[in-house]
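Q: Start with the shorter request: fold the first protein.
A: Done. Sequence, then structure:
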Amino acid sequence: MANGALAIVLAAGKSTRMKSALPKVLHQVCGRPMIEYVLDAARAAGVSRIVAVVGHRAELVQEELSKHADVEFALQTEQKGTGHAVMMCRDQLASHHGAVLVLAGDTPLLKSDSLAGLLHAQLDSHAAAVIGTTDTEANQGLGRILRDSAGQFERIVEERDATDDQKRIREINTGCYAFDSQSLLSALDRIRPDNNQAEYYLTDCPLVLKSDGKPVVAAKVFQVSEAMGVNTRAQLADVTRAIQQATMARLMASGVSVVLPELTYIDPRAVIEPDTIILPFCHIHGPVTIGSDCRIGPHAVVEGAIKLAAGTMVPPFSRISGD
């Protein structure tokens, strides 16, 4: 049902808090630029066309993503807010009739099931806009979702504008949205930079649409971890750790023995068959395929597009590299 959706992925930001010249979305998580996890999740949710909004060192982001046939680009030459970034996609929106996801390129923990849920919420309710939400006690600094007495979406209130009672609201805006493309185009024409930052906020679009009498929904389809954006090196380490833990859990559930997961690195793209044993301090990088009944390490490195046959023994302190 969600097939044919368009995704706009915001990827124009700098790495100011990371103290880096490299565009933020190109910082690697488990061997891949973090934005690629967002693209994968969008595709798996049913998106067939992706627009990456580039800005800071745009040529680097375009060079990295140009290998993906389904990715096109929009250029944001000035950083004037999230709404302004989406305005740069007017041509793509005008040619698309249907659902549009708007996502941040620095959220590598997004799950395809959650994005599919967001798209289905937009389709099922015929909404002009769906705001993806989640509950969390750690809501400091985040936009709260206000609902009316019937439980329907009323508005988003930012923390700086919230009353004490509103600050206690646990439901927060994740920054993930699903819009009807033509409704979004209409709203973008009417938002204004009437705020202290003189920026165009995407969060103003649902309010514009609601004032038109169009349905606007807040859908609680995300886990709080998915909203974790990467702004610092510490957060980069946090999401890397989360993806590693998920990778280890998946492999062990499938019959692979990882003797000490906390002392082992395994690329999420690796395919490892049951009854293989991965000993401590091993590093498995890239799209490695390892057959069943293998024994790897300890202290071994296996990397690249390489296939190890069933029963292979990789000795301690060895390195095996593919193309």
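Q: Next, the second protein, separately.
A: Sequence, then structure:
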Amino acid sequence: MPIPKEVQGQKYICLITFRKNRAAVNTPVWFAERDDKLYVQTRNDSGKYKRIRNNPNVRVAPCTIRGKVIGPEFAGKARILPPEQWQPAKEASKYWLARLPFWSSKNECLELDLQI
């Protein structure tokens, strides 16, 4: 599905993941847009990564740097990308800091497919 206009061009999104007890956890994150998908970089020891590994259902909403939601939420599915699929996501990043080559062995790339 296409990226919603409310999310396109935003600086941050609130990535909402779910604990095993179904409690929602909001996290403001940088993201990249490419080919109707959103991409997020994170560490494989982070809470959001572990929650996505257990439950790929997510919700996304535009937000401020502090996580204040400023637009509607959209449901989606997250997928942990294999390393050979990271390059297009890294190239799509709009943040110069995210493009620097100090990539840790714990970093991962997530693909978010929104269902509108």
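Q: Describe the second briefly.
A: The chain has three helices and seven strands. The first strand starts at residue 12 and ends at 18.
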